[in-house]
Amino acid sequence: MDRRNFIQSTMMGMIAVGMPISFSSCNSSTKKTSSVGSGLKLSFKPYDLKLCHAFNLAKSSRTHTPDVLVQIECDGIIGYGEASMPPYLGETTESVCQFLSNLDLGQFKDPFRLEDILAYVDSTAPDNRAAKASVDIALHDLLGKIMGQPWYKIWGLNPENAPSTSFTIGIDTAEVVRQKVEETKPYNVIKVKMGLDNDKELVEIIRSATDKPICVDANQGWSDKEKALEMIEWLYDKNVLFVEQPMPKEMIEETAWLRERSQLPIIADEFMQRLPDVKRAAEAYDGINIKLMKSTGMHEAYQMAVLARALGMKVMVGCMTETSCAVSAAAQLSPLADWADLDGNLLISNDCFDGMKIVEGRITLPDRPGIGVLPL
Length: 376
Fold this sequence. Notes:
The chain is α/β, with parallel strands linked by helices.
């Protein structure tokens, strides 16, 4: 595209999102900014996500999730992102804010230098994947708004291929599980957290109320491969789609043994972090669950999905407990996925964004530029 056409398309994109048009450098002032130059402006603030129910897993339980909301601004256009920090990720509000404070995005005056910007962010410190994801998401939102297009269109994806999302039922008492089954009525797929002694009881309770497909997530809760296989054989006749992370992520050989014998697909979750893990996962798993808070954001998540497809693997797009900001960002990838678990925004009582919707159980992507969210 020549400069004239680029400027014209940029103007149309700005008009589409109601932003002021300016061709000056990104020099808008922002509160709590960590950028000291005259380029992109980064600002952020902590936000506590309040869960509608206690979120019970095989090895933990919580009633809230710490979160940090992020903005990147350029010439009056704002991109939104977030970092969600469930305890097992090892990040905290303090670590994320410290990481973001150390960034100098002001050195970048052209937001389209995506590779350079994200390489700089990634090289600033090891790990900090959720913190990095917050910048990545905000940058993608900003670029999409400048171009006036949602990312599923930029990637050339068909929104009609977006799958149904599962709705999660955590480990709980029989009474609470029955209540949660009632809450799954608007959804086509149920996700069940397992990994304790009452696994079969949970499934039986659900099956007494509905025959909807179930996704099983053991969260590394089965450490004996023989017992894991026995459980999978029992689940096979219960209309189960797959089993996610049945064994501890370190037990690669045992998981490979299980996959060879399993009648259900085995999907990697805790095992999966970033792009290099995809090829390793192919040795022991049938598919991968991609989460933006682990992949460092949309840029690498897209690469992971493409590589997994090239390796003949199944693809699932998941999330943490998040607002509609990060969930809608992940949903941009959903047309590439076989399955989706994008209900993190539905599990909280204080969502501060309007974004992707679930219509008749299926993911519906808004025709809005960027990641498709509006602040509430």
